[in-house]
Automatic annotation (TrEMBL):
Family: Belongs to the TRAFAC class myosin-kinesin ATPase superfamily. Kinesin family.
InterPro entries for the chain: Kinesin-like_fam (IPR027640), Kinesin_motor_dom (IPR001752), Kinesin_motor_dom_sf (IPR036961), P-loop_NTPase (IPR027417)
GO cellular component terms, A-Z: kinesin complex; microtubule
Biased composition (Basic and acidic residues): 39-50
Positions with biased composition (Low complexity): 24-35
Start and end residues of each stretch annotated as Disordered: 23-50
Chain positions recorded as ATP binding sites: 188-195
The name this protein goes by in its record: Kinesin motor domain-containing protein
Length: 629
């Protein structure tokens, strides 16, 4: 039988001794060497892109000074004091590290010193142990439950370590700059440190985003023969990223089904000092299937502007006192950074989505809530359960290619906003990191077990191949080097033929205006390819290697290996150079889209076939059978 927080506090000396004995035994059985901090390199190696689409991480924070004494005591006036602090104003203490933490409170008489409820075994990456107090007929007991994830961060791990091993190691910045979608979700009990982690990741990402864009812009311009800063739109030649990328930012707060804009000035205080009710923002799919709420999109041009916007938006987020946290976030905060490549305007926008989820609560946490707080807790838990189903289904779909997996992302406003990472019909590459936060206190062990049980099933490993790969013309993952080159030659040849037809139509139109005729187009004549395919895909590179390229890297590689195919098409040397550059970029994006479409279809073949069958059935129900002539 599980032990209550009050019973656990009463038996702290016993549990502290049992935990110490377990830690001593665990250290004796583990190897003495430990890897320590991992600092991934910042190069564009393929190794960082061969990981999983969904990464699961556990994190526990360090306990705050006097936190155990303030939180876990029989004095029921603590919650009343926190409500009083809401009216007077919270004190700026070190409680920021616990997502608001606790404000100043009277010193209780009960001895409730800290006892660890979570441990990260040394030398073992990705494991976290929860020490769960219990009660049997012969007295208190302590069980040790092990949970596995891809990463596990103990109380000594700094935010810099979390950033390096999640956002940086998963290459999310380059993914977004290349037209993909990167998402970070922070989940856990209220007061477990989610906001502390997410605010740090947001500010750290803001510092790295623009330098990465500058480096990529300089490389991209060099590949097409331009000098860095030559076509920059700003007065400063060093602002290279302004001519290549544009960044727009939105910050949304979601409470139940009601969404508000955190960036809009209407979300702040009015002139008389009262807080107005922010205007509700509707969340729905448009005719193109996009989910773009009518939020204020702010254009940012530097790390300082982005950090300032994040700070101002977070100040508008709603907090309320609860039994566990005096300044608990009662809503989901979703920061979205959209990236547009101005040099390739017809390419997809990249996105970085950072979600600070509202804290989950058990009955013991919300039994003192009023009617409004109870309704908030109900909506929060409902949205978190929908998110769990979607993440688990997406993780399953990435490893079980032969099974149809339904991802119910339209069942809740939160998951609908995260459609770019859940909808397998979309062709954009995506990566998701879920950081499950747990409290370090043994009194919260029951809730920590629920949190770890929630996130642990998301960790899935793809099945290992059981035999030799059989060639399939529709699956690029089965191609060798020769087959990859053959497909690339055919793809670029089709693009060249389309361009040849377009030029011929223009000439026919011009000749017709002059009352003349031109020779019919001979499609059997060989065409010159815009890209030297053997240099674009040198041996022993295969389609698997090309599949790890981002869109901008694919275009950059095409520009570096382009061939002169515009002889005689355009008069003027400068115009010909610019026209060839534009033509190569357009063809590169078109071939990249076809290649990724093949990859996506091959990975989710069963899902795509099932959806295509459903669309045919729907068409028959609406329009009837197609008549046969």
């Amino acid at each position: 039988m599980a032990s209550s927080a009050a019973h656990t506090t009463a038996n702290l000396p016993l549990f502290r001794r049992l935990v110490s004995e377990w830690e001593a035994a665990s250290q004796a059985s583990q190897p003495t060497s430990q890897s320590g901090k991992i600092e991934p390199s910042r190069d564009d190696s393929f190794a960082r892109r061969s990981g999983k689409d969904i990464l699961v991480a556990f994190r526990t924070r360090p306990p705050l000074p006097e936190e155990a004494r303030c939180k876990f005591t029989a004095d029921e006036n603590i919650y009343a004091n926190s409500r009083m602090n809401e009216e007077v104003g919270p004190q700026a203490t070190g409680a920021v590290a616990a997502e608001g933490g606790t404000s100043e409170a009277p010193e209780p008489d009960l001895d409730a010193e800290f006892c660890p409820g979570i441990s990260v075994p040394p030398g073992v990456d990705g494991k976290m142990v929860a020490h769960v107090p219990g009660m049997k007929w012969n007295g208190p007991t302590l069980s040790h439950k092990v949970f596995e994830a891809d990463l596990a961060f103990g109380p000594d791990a700094a935010n810099e370590d979390v950033y390096n091993r999640t956002v940086l190691a998963q290459d999310m910045i380059n993914l977004a700059l290349g037209g993909g979608v990167g998402c970070v979700l922070a989940y856990g009990q209220t007061g477990a440190g989610k906001t502390y982690t997410m605010e740090s990741l947001e500010r750290r990402l803001a510092l790295d985003l623009f330098p990465a864009a500058e480096a990529l812009s300089a490389r991209f311009l060099a590949s097409q023969g331009d000098q860095p800063g030559q076509s920059a739109t700003s007065e400063s030649p060093s602002s290279v990223q302004e001519c290549i990328f544009s960044f727009s930012v939105t910050f949304l707060e979601l409470l139940g089904k009601r969404a508000t804009d955190l960036v809009s000035p209407s979300a702040g205080d009015t002139a008389d000092g009262t807080a107005p009710s922010a205007k509700e923002v509707m969340i729905h799919e448009n005719k193109l299937g996009e989910v773009r709420p009518l939020l204020l999109e702010s254009q940012v041009h530097s790390s300082e502007e982005l950090q300032d916007l994040i700070t101002r938006s977070l100040a508008h987020r709603r907090t309320s006192p609860t039994h566990r946290n005096a300044t608990s976030s009662r809503s989901h905060a979703i920061l979205t950074i959209r990236v547009k490549n101005r040099m390739v305007p017809y390419a997809d926008e990249g996105q970085l989505i950072l979600v600070d989820l509202s804290g989950s609560e058990r009955y013991e946490d919300n039994k003192a809530h009023n009617k409004q707080r109870m309704e908030e807790s109900r909506e929060i838990n409902k949205s978190l359960m929908n998110l769990k189903e979607c993440v688990r289904a997406k993780a399953k779909a990435t490893v079980e290619e032969e099974a149809f997996v339904h991802i119910p992302f339209r069942s809740n406003k939160l998951t609908l906003l995260l459609k770019p990472i859940f909808d397998i019909e979309l062709r954009q590459p995506s990566k998701t990191v879920i950081i499950a936060h747990v409290s370090p206190h043994i009194q919260d062990a029951a809730h920590s077990v629920n949190t770890l049980s929630y996130a642990s099933p998301f960790k899935m490993s793809p099945p290992k191949p059981t035999g030799p790969v059989v060639y399939n013309s529709a699956d690029p993952r089965t191609w060798n080097h020769e087959q990859t080159v053959e497909w690339l030659v055919a793809a670029f040849t089709n693009c060249a033929l389309k361009r040849k037809k377009g030029i011929n139509r223009q000439r026919e139109k011009a000749a017709k205006a002059l009352g003349k005729k031109i020779r019919p187009l001979d499609m059997s004549e060989p065409v010159d390819l815009a890209v030297r395919v053997e240099e674009f895909c040198p041996a022993p590179m295969t389609a698997r290697n090309l599949g790890r390229l981002y869109m901008n890297e694919w275009v950059e590689k095409c520009l570096q290996t382009r061939a002169d195919v515009l002889k005689g098409d355009i008069n003027g040397e400068g115009d010909a150079d610019q026209a060839q550059t534009d033509m190569v970029k357009k063809m590169a994006v078109e071939v990249y889209a076809k290649f990724n479409d093949l990859l996506s279809t091959a990975r989710y073949k069963t899902q795509h076939d099932m959806m295509a069958t459903r669309r045919k059935i729907t068409a028959k129900e609406v329009y009837g059978e197609v008549p046969k002539w």
